[in-house]
UniProtKB/TrEMBL annotation:
GO terms under biological process: dopamine catabolic process; norepinephrine biosynthetic process; octopamine biosynthetic process
Record's keyword terms, sorted: Signal
Domain called DOMON: residue spans: 40-97
Protein source organism: Herpetotheres cachinnans (Laughing falcon)
UniProt signal peptide: 1-23
GO CC, alphabetical: extracellular space; secretory granule membrane
Classification via PROSITE patterns: DOMON (PS50836)
Name of the protein in its database record: MOXD2 protein
Molecular functions per Gene Ontology: copper ion binding; dopamine beta-monooxygenase activity
Amino acid sequence: MTVLFSRIKGMLFLLFLPCFCSGQPAPPLLRFSTFLDPSNMVYLCWDHDEQELMTFELQVHTTGWVAFGFSPHGELPGSDIVIGGVFPNGSIYFSVS
């Protein structure tokens, strides 16, 4: 993972949240993927283009929210974190910290 983070440091990260709106185009197919946990509940897909823009898709079995972090050293302090979820009324929230 250290090599991966050193290569992508400083790049723009995009996280595609599922769109529940009809008529929206399907997201692009991403070439790389892996489960992040032994229970196969967290599935990460990613890809990059010619300009080194990376796209991430995170599929999670959850109770309404998920957090995902980027870190060059594998620890929480100093990492970039994305938090998203669905409120009980169905509206979606998304935050980057």
